[in-house]
Design goal:
The complex is a heterodimer of chains A (about 300) and B (about 650).
Chain A lengths: L14 H7 L15 E20 L11 H7 L3 E9 L2 E7 L11 H18 L3 E7 L3 E4 L9 H9 L9 H11 L4 E7 L7 H8 L4 E9 L1 H4 L6 E6 L5 E5 L2 H24 L3 E6 L4 H11 L5
Parallel strand pairs in A: 3-4, 3-6, 6-7, 7-10
Antiparallel strand pairs in A: 1-2, 4-5, 8-9
Chain B lengths: L5 E2 L2 H22 L3 E5 L3 H13 L3 H4 L2 H17 L2 E3 L8 E7 L16 H14 L6 E7 L3 E8 L2 H9 L11 H10 L16 E6 L14 E6 L8 E10 L6 E10 L5 E9 L2 E10 L6 H6 L5 E7 L4 E7 L12 E6 L7 E4 L4 H9 L6 E3 L1 H7 L6 E5 L10 E6 L9 E3 L13 E2 L3 E2 L16 E2 L3 E3 L5 E6 L2 E9 L2 E6 L13 H17 L6 E2 L6 E2 L1 H7 L5 E5 L4 E5 L6 E2 L7 E6 L7 E4 L4 H4 L13 E2 L9 E2 L1 H22 L4
Parallel strand pairs in B: 4-5, 4-7, 7-8, 8-35, 16-17, 16-18, 18-19, 19-27, 28-34
Antiparallel strand pairs in B: 1-3, 3-36, 5-6, 9-10, 10-13, 11-12, 11-14, 14-15, 20-24, 21-23, 22-25, 25-26, 26-27, 29-32, 30-31, 30-33, 33-34
């Protein structure tokens, strides 16, 4: 995979890359009920061509599904059941807090590209795609989009997202969970730097009705800080100040804390049936989408 | 010895520290302008800082190397400012009297003084003391040995005092402290008020000595006496502590030399003693010396031989030197040798009493005699001369003899003597009746007859001598003794039984040799004593009469010694006193002024040769300075600056430029 195949900076997705994404689909480890007819097997019994089971006839059942051959043999009415095919809800929560507007490559751009790619894959596979921007709450969302025709709308929405406000994962997730009761695949794209703690937010969306994928995205400058001297560090989100004198022990301690933080997040997510993925913005975007997300089972 | 440094300027340094260190810290924190940087979240940074602070108290200070280096540099500079010194002794007081021992024992080169003598070490310590003089303090310097001398009066001029100390010269004299103390008391202008309790302060009196003084029992001093012992207990020294030389009364040409040695070291040694005469080795003897510091029981168990005796033949003048040759571990050289001057034979006044004797007159002329005279027997009897060293009677038996002297008889016998002759005086016989006799034997080893061949001589009709047993027969013929020597009362009789005219001897070369030997022998015998030995510091007086006799009109005498050479002006009247002969060795005068032409000065002092220093102050007066006190004072401040502060400054610069962090 080369950088040349990745989208240009000013484009979230370039046509060549979109063509490659056409071959992918959003996968869910759960059989989730959809809302409309679609291309994905549902838990419900329906009218597809695939036989599922028999059951006794009850009054009111559609007579077209009675198995007359069995009636002839057994003189009892049995109803033939078929698997239903419905659409899949794909939720993408993208963190647009100010902390994401950092690093080189920029975290916010990176997150938007991932969100756009996931949205594109969902739309072309006739899934119900909903992209939600969050900061200190839900900032904006596309609403349910379906079909290839909505790709333009989706990309337009994502590209217009601007970093704003502080992270407040708890309120955002809570509102999301209350507003979106339809089961589906939920991809949370964030750095998960929330002073209130990611646990308070993720507990609304982990387990239960969502098949959770938590993608933590950090810039190289956060992973390997290149700081020197006596510094006054200003938090981008809340303008909180931290006075530090950079020393080797401090850097070492910072890295240890970061590692512990990420491991804690991973542990929290996986224990609740979710999937955790760590991504550095130094990893080419297409590598993340085409390789890492496939390896984690989000795309197939 | 403590190497812990002492601070000369502690309070100033403490004050500077109290101001400078907080100032640095304040300035450091004030100057700390933190660069502002934006980060996505301070969450992890704050947590990291908190974690470090939990695990490391003072983390804020500890983590900044630069601040620590600056603090360390400042502390080093402050330490240098406090003027730390090592080997520091308490300083001099307001009035300080410095007494420096320059006696013989202070010439000892202790092994731990690295080639310095004790006097040089004492001078060094005294100079260190002088350097500690305060602003209003004064010090004076007195050097003492047998006497005391003010080298520098009370002064606050430190360079002048140090120069005065440097000018003190070693002597080989004994050591007496009493006069030094008296001089110190007199010169320091002790105020009687000081003696009252609580009134005034007594001066400090510093004594730099090995404590080997002869008058320890008589010492008292008004002052705070501080005794700084110089020297080591482990120093060894083999010394000649006694020496004597004398002529054998029976055999005046024989000189006997006695010497006693002492070992002041810690181990028993075998020392050879060498005897030289005028620089030529004549004999060597061995001794076995046990240390003087051993107890009586230890000394009894060991076999010791601490004295030697030499016997040598000396008919001429000479300088006899006895030297101990055990130089290894010998710290004091002044007592290794002792000299004695054996005087030359006297220049004799000789009187020949004869009717006329060509051979004897000729022989007397050939001898270098002081006052040769000749008298007829009758004239002699009339004159009754008494001031001649030797009187030769030729065929004449005198009626008068001086009460003492040397008397030589040719063809005659002494009057009223145990030596009898038949006839008493040689009587010539007619030629036909003459009977010539030869020599049967003679004493070949006697100084008079040594190297002479007398066997072929003939003597006509010698007197037949009857000699007592105490007489010494030097030559014997067939008819009896031909040559006899005997000492009677105050006289020496030398009797030849023959007439020299009536013998073949005068025509032979051995006769003038015999006459010369005879005069030498009698001259030596007339001065049995060797020259006196002088103690170091003696000032021999040359009598005016001697000066007039030897060198009339002389204006100055040059004295050449082992350490110096001086011209001594001769006073117009009175005796000439030579300057103090303060070093051991041989002194000569020019022109020669016998018996002061050669003067031997020997130490021969048990107390001075004992190089074991005394621990306590002499006479128990005063305090002993702790060992190491008064040693060289080393200022450490520039070592701190050069070896620590400058490298630290470079390190700080490097850290600053490289932004190195802990």
């Amino acid at each position: 995979m080369t950088v040349a195949q990745a989208p240009k900076n000013d484009l979230l997705l370039d046509p060549g890359f979109m063509a490659r994404l056409d071959q992918l689909d959003v996968m869910s480890r759960k059989l989730l009920a959809g809302k409309m007819k679609g291309e994905r097997r549902s838990k419900r019994r329906g009218q597809s061509m695939e036989f599922a089971d028999y059951r006794n006839y009850v009054v009111g059942d559609d007579l077209r599904f009675i198995d007359w051959n069995i009636y002839a043999r057994l003189d009892r009415l049995f109803l033939k059941l078929f698997l239903e095919e419905e659409d899949l809800s794909v939720y993408v929560i993208i963190d647009v807090s100010r902390s994401c507007d950092y690093g080189n490559p920029n975290k916010a751009l990176y997150l938007k590209r991932v969100a756009a790619a996931l949205g594109y894959i969902g739309l072309v596979n006739y899934n119900r795609v909903n992209i939600v921007a969050m900061a200190d709450g839900i900032v904006a969302e596309t609403g349910a989009l379906r079909g290839r025709r909505r790709v333009g709308q989706m990309i337009d929405f994502v590209s217009k997202l601007r970093p704003t406000g502080a992270s407040h994962l708890a309120s955002a997730c809570k509102r999301f969970a209350l507003a979106h009761r339809q089961k589906g695949v939920l991809v949370v794209l964030s750095d998960f730097f929330d002073k209130g703690g990611y646990e308070n937010g993720l507990r609304y969306v982990a387990g239960g009705k969502y098949d959770l994928f938590a993608v933590q995205c950090l810039s190289p400058q956060e992973i390997e800080p290149d700081l020197q001297g006596d510094l006054k560090l200003r938090d981008m989100e809340d303008d909180d100040m931290a006075e530090v004198s950079i020393t080797q022990p401090l850097i070492k301690q910072y890295k240890a804390n970061l590692n512990a933080y990420c491991l804690g997040l991973k542990d929290y997510v996986t224990r609740r049936g979710g999937t955790y993925l760590f991504a550095s913005t130094s990893v080419p975007f297409d590598t993340l989408v085409l390789n890492y997300l496939r390896e984690r089972g989000l795309l197939g | 010895m403590s190497y812990w440094p002492t601070f000369l300027n502690p309070w100033a340094a403490a004050l500077a520290s109290a101001i400078a260190i907080p100032s640095l810290l304040i300035l450091y924190f004030l100057k700390l302008r933190r660069r502002e940087m934006t980060v996505p979240s301070t969450l992890l940074w704050k947590k990291a800082v908190q974690d470090l602070q939990v695990n490391a108290p003072f983390q804020r200070l500890r983590k900044n190397l630069l601040l620590f280096l600056q603090l360390l540099l400042l502390l080093l500079l402050l330490l240098a400012f406090s003027r730390p010194v090592t080997n520091y002794s308490p300083g001099a007081g307001t009035t300080t009297v410095i007494l420096i021992d320059r006696s013989a024992s202070m010439g000892t080169k202790d092994p731990d003084l690295k080639g310095l003598t004790r006097l040089e070490e004492a001078k060094r310590r005294a100079k260190d003391l002088v350097e500690t003089l305060g602003k209003n303090a004064q010090a004076m310097v007195i050097a003492f040995d047998e006497t005391a001398e003010t080298i520098a009066p009370l002064s606050a001029d430190i360079p002048a005092l140090k120069r005065a100390i440097d000018s003190i010269q070693q002597t080989d004299k004994k050591s007496r402290l009493k006069t030094a103390y008296q001089l110190a008391e007199a010169q320091a202008s002790f105020n009687p008020e000081q003696l009252r309790p609580g009134v005034g302060t007594l001066p400090d009196v510093w004594v730099y000595s090995d404590g080997r003084v002869t008058d320890a029992a008589e010492l008292t001093i008004r002052g705070n006496l501080k005794y700084d012992k110089v020297g080591s207990d482990k120093t060894g020294n083999v010394a000649i502590v006694a020496m004597n030389a004398k002529r054998n009364y029976e055999r005046p040409t024989e000189v006997q030399i006695f010497a006693r040695l002492a070992n002041f070291g810690t181990e028993a040694v075998n020392a050879d003693v060498q005897l030289t005469v005028d620089g030529k080795v004549r004999a060597v003897a061995g001794t076995s010396l046990v240390p003087e510091r051993w107890t009586e029981q230890q000394r009894e168990k060991a076999t010791a031989k601490d004295s030697v005796e030499f016997t040598i033949e000396m008919t001429a003048a000479g300088v006899v030197k006895v030297e101990q040759m055990h130089k290894e571990g010998d710290a004091l050289a002044a007592d290794d040798a002792a000299t004695v001057v054996v005087p030359p034979p006297k220049n004799l006044a000789v009187l020949l009493v004869t009717e006329g004797n060509f051979f004897l007159e000729l022989a007397m002329k050939s001898l270098q005699l002081q006052n040769p005279q000749q008298l007829l027997p009758a004239a002699y009897e009339n004159a009754k001369p008494a001031n001649f060293d030797v009187i030769i009677f030729d065929r004449y038996q005198p009626k008068f003899l001086p009460p003492a002297g040397n008397f030589v008889y040719f063809g005659a016998t002494p009057p009223d003597s145990k030596i009898k002759g038949e006839p008493p005086v040689y009587v010539p016989k007619p030629p036909k009746e003459k009977k010539v006799v030869g020599v049967i034997d003679w004493k070949r080893d006697h100084p008079i007859l040594r190297h002479l061949q007398l066997g072929s001589h003939g003597f006509a009709d010698p007197i037949k001598l009857t000699v007592p047993p105490e007489a010494e027969v030097l030559m014997e013929g067939p008819t009896g003794p031909l040559m006899v020597m005997m000492r009677e009362k105050f006289s020496t009789q030398f009797v030849m039984a023959f007439d020299v005219i009536e013998s073949t001897w005068p025509l032979k070369p051995s006769f003038p040799v015999f006459m010369h030997n005879l005069m030498q022998f009698l001259a030596v015998g007339s001065e049995m004593d060797v020259r006196p030995q002088f103690e170091p510091g003696s000032t021999p007086r040359i009598q005016r009469a001697l000066l007039q006799r030897v060198a009339p009109g002389i204006t100055s005498v040059r004295v050449n010694g082992p350490a110096w050479s001086k011209d001594v002006p001769v006073p117009a009247n009175g005796d000439l006193a030579l300057p103090p002969l303060d070093r051991v060795g041989l002194y000569t005068t020019s022109p020669a002024l016998p018996p002061f032409d050669q003067v031997a000065v020997n130490l021969l002092d048990f107390n001075e040769s004992n190089v074991v220093p005394v621990d306590q102050p002499p006479g128990g007066v005063g305090d002993k300075i702790a060992e190491g006190g008064g040693k060289s004072r080393l200022e450490l401040w520039w070592w701190i600056v050069a070896c620590a502060a400058l490298p630290l400054l470079l390190l700080e610069w490097w850290v600053y430029t490289r932004r190195v962090h802990l």
